[in-house]
Structures are given as structure tokens and as C-alpha cells.
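Weekly modeling sync, notes
Attendees: AB, CL, MP (scribe)

Item 1: holo prediction request
CL wants a bound-state model with zinc ion before deciding which constructs to order. AB pointed out that an apo prediction alone won't tell us much about the pocket. Agreed to run with the ligand included and paste results into these notes for async review.

Input as submitted:
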Amino acid sequence: MGCRVFKNNACKITFKYKGNDHTGIDLVGPNSTFDYIVAHSAGTVVAVVSNCNKNTSKTGERIYGNYVKLKHDNGMYTLYAHMKYGSIKVKKGDKVLKGQVLGYMGNTGYSFGAHVHFEVRNEKDKYIDPTKYVDADLPKEETSTSSSALTHKVGEKVTINGVYTSSTSTMRLTPAVNTGKITKIVEGARNPYLLNDGGLGWVNDDCIVSAAKKTTNNSIKVGDKVKVKKGAKSYKGTSLASFVYNTTYEVMELKGDRAVIGKNGAVTTDIHIDNLYK
Ligand SMILES: [Zn+2]
């Protein structure tokens, strides 16, 4: 597998992550070969131990032997343990680039044969399963633009549809439309957006119909079957024939708050989307 922890960009896992029982993963080269250990991502060296020249017992602070710990721009940490005595190339406070050599694989600390014990820790310095990050970027900061699948950001005010999904169930809100502020995003979650610190629960993209500052009914999309509110006028304010209010139309075009509606491919009128309903 590709590997951002080794200079040669290849490794195999010899011991899996097991939470408290094994707080990282153990890696060696693809044929149990040795390699230089490099920074997984750019960051700052926040801890170094380089004076360990032997194996140690299972407990105590020397368990990692020689190691380097980095803090990354997204607030997360990576840690590289059991490095060879005398091989460490960085010191605390150094800025490192992705792929920069930190040291060489070794067998210092509580270790049986040369390998690197690789840990990933979250912003609270709590270890998480590093397996999926061996050859991938760490998650982006929660406050930054999130992954391409997520279209909203922390701090954004949004309007949500009358029906939305909490982390545990589907709920119907009263009134049918509510506005809230995204206060947290958990990427990869089924409902990644937390609204109003939980006051409006967790929702996904499907539940967010618009940014709250827009007053228009953005739940209308091109291709939707819609009806026209009784008495509504055209976008420019001209009156419409009475049959218009009794007919179902298709939204043929949409730009801002102006929709073009028609039937069987023929345009009937343009109209403000607030005058349409499904
Ligand atoms: Zn390990």
C-alpha cells in the first residue's frame, strides 16, 4: 500500500489499531524492509525523545522509545515511535514539510523488531484509528471549507425544510420552515451539520433548502412539477389567465428568484418562485 509515513512511500501493517490496547498501527516496509520515516503532513514538531538506546518494558513513559510528535494545521497530531537511536533529524519547535525525513526506523522502547508505531490523534490529543490516513490526508479543519460533498460551512445561517433528520430519527418541525446556524460539522457523518448547538439537531444537505438570508423559496428546482398561487402575477407584474391557477406546470428555467414555467415544452410565463408551490 502507498504510505505517507515512509520515504519510499510503501509499507505494510504488521499490527492493527486496537484502541486502548494498541493506540496506533505498526508499519514496516513492504518486504519487512527498513526505511526513513517522514512527516505525514506539514506541521510543527511538538515533542521529541531522542536519547533512548535500548528496548524498554511495557509500561512507563519510555514505551515509545525515540519518537517524534507533530501537530498539523488542522489541529490534529501524528506520532512516530521506536526510531533508531541517533537517527532523529528534527527538534522541538521545528516546522516540517510533508515528506520531510524525521528519522529512521528502529527498535527502541517497547518494541520487538524494527518498525514504526504510527499514531494519529485528534484535536484533543486523543488517539484515533490511523489506518485510513496511512495514504490519505488528515481531515480538514472543521471551521474551514469542508469536503467537496458538503456545501455549507460552520457559522452559516440556513433555512431547513419542515422535515429533517436528527442523529437518531426523522422529525417534522413546526413551523414547517425553520432557520438555524450551523455550529459544528462532522464530516462523514450521516447528518453532518449541527444546528444551533443542538437546538435544531443534526441535519444533512438534503434538509437545508437555502441560506437564511435569502427569502425566496429555494426548494423549487428545475424540472419540478409546480402550481401557481391563486392571484399571483407574472414576474414583471402582469396578470395571468385564471386557468393558470388550476394547471400543473414544469419549472423549465430558474435564475435567482425568477422561474420560467410551462407545459409540454411550451413556456407559459415567468414568475417569482415565491408564487410557486409543489
Ligand atoms: Zn505499535
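Recorded for review: The mean pLDDT is 85.
Action items: CL to compare against the apo run; MP to circulate these notes.
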